[in-house]
Amino acid sequence: MRRRAFVVSVPLLGLAYAAGCTDQRSHAHAVYMLVDTSGTYAQEIGKAQLIVNYLLGSLQPGDSLAVARVRSRSFSEKDIIAKATFDNRPSQANAQKRALKEKVEAFTASARGSVNTDITGGLIQGSQFLKETGAGRKTILIFSDMQEELDKATVRNFPIDLKDIRVVAVNVVKLSTDNIDPRRYMGRLEDWQKRVKAAGASEWRVINDIEHLDALLKG
Amino acid sequence: MADSPFWMIWPGNAALSALILFLIAMPFLYAARMPVHGLLRALGQLAGGPLRMCSRWLLDAARTLQERNRAVLLAQGREETGQQIAREFERVAALVRHDLEGYPALQRKLLDEITRVEEDYRKCGEVPPPPPEWIEAVTAVAKVKSNGNEMVQRILEEIQKSVVVIHDKALAEYRRAYQSRHKILDGFMPFWRSLDKTLARTDSKITSLTERASVIDAQMEKFEQIAKKTDKAEHALTVSALTQFFIAALVLLIAAGGALINFKLIALPMSEMVGAGDYLTSTLRTSEVAALVIIFVEATMGLFLMETLHITHLFPRIHSLGEVIRKRMMWASFVLLLTLAGIEAALALMRDMLIADKQALLQSLAATQAVVADGWLTRIPTAGQMLLGFILPFALAFVAIPLESFINSARTVGGAALVILARAVAVALRLAGSFIRQLCRVLIMVYDISIVLPLLGERLVKAGRAGAKARGAGLQAGERS
Fold it and tell me: ipTM of the predicted structure?
């Protein structure tokens, strides 16, 4: 009699234990995508749309996505083109994704090139956005050639905080000067890696082939 | 040479160095012979003794366990066979109640029919009245001689005519009588048929009763064997438990597959209800746990339904409930199961809608033209999922039956496996103990071989002393004589 009662009660106790000890950590994934619209790189904006579409297809309910542009000064909420924290219900999340896709499409259709490129400002803005989401996994995607050009008034030469954030540079195209001396390209990427790592980023990665976007969200 | 090991007395020649060291050590080894022998024997006892004790304890435990298993097995067998016999008696009672309750009426009908047949038969037996006495008169007339007398001739002719007329009349009457008897016999036929049918029906009922009786006889014989605690009964019960165990395990495995499909059906739509972003552990979503809980609740309701239907006997408390409460509980379980099945069907529909929505989104993201499918063709999987969602909870309800068999047989199988394991470990420990003792003996022999030269010397000295003593004793004896 006791043995039978035990056999029946074990799974129920296990469930009760599981219910009492819920995992309080956030399992959501927040992604902040910076889209460079400066100079000749503005021609690449079609690829940015593809990447956004991939993200919309891959992110789950509860995850967050923000798409922001990189301009002469990018440390501003006004540079966020579209953002959404997807609802926990899959049907609502799908509706939000459709709305976000339309906003990004509208932006890509009307995007204008900027004179300078403030990637650092965008990183700081992205870092703040990601921290506010409270997501367990945070990623900043930089869709840029990683050539930062600031005007004289803009100050960005100070340490930034990217703690526990993955930073992925996507579609880092080679400039005409890089073709003359490839060391410039290598050096540019190396400098960014050092800066990002010094800022406390959990990972630095470069993905140039947009056919392999599956590595974008894999930490 | 400087880098030679410290023990190398003869630098560059390890074998010679070892030999010299061995020769140096030999006297010391000889001197330490008795303590070393004692040490090795003690080590053998130290290791072998506890191992032997453990082995003996395990064998005793296995014996006790086996006795206990036997007692439990026989008790279970007695209970099961008792239940089967009770069930057979219930069947017999039902048979008597349903089939043989009309037996008195049947018997009365049979007697009536037999009486009627007897009466008719008696009527058939009534022969037509015998010919009249005038036969003798005719014989007498026949003896009359006419002798050509015309008068006599005419009288005889008249008599003949009368006789022929009377004969024809009597024959017609006789035939009529037989015709009426044939009609009576013809009227027998339906009665005979009815009688035959009634008897056949009675025979079939009696036969089924006899079959039940033979089954009860077999069960009673089995019960007696169990009550006598014979080895045959124990063996039969063990084999039966083993078979039950594997069959129940197989069915439970299949049911687990069904539960997995069920889980897949409702896990996604549950995220629409409880949210997809909540986690219980790092990999377990709340929606998945909610789906699991629903499946467990369905299984539990099925368990209660089977219990209240007296199909399984996992909860004695339910069986001791009053009939009214038991029926209420049965209906409550059934209604809950039905409700859950309805919910599952709805969730299956929601799952299909969510997947379709996701597909539409992905197609819009991929910027490809959506494939327009035929309307009723796309509805087949949806209907199939809904049907599956509705059926699976009821299918899961029947898991209670193999679960009970599994739990009951697992005690026997587990106990037998434990006995085998205990015996195997006991044998292994005994072997290990014996091996260590023998190893110590071998080491003693090896030790003695290593100091064979001093031992040879000792033997020679002892032999010399013994010879001297013998010679001394011989001289003394010679002097005395």
Answer: 0.77
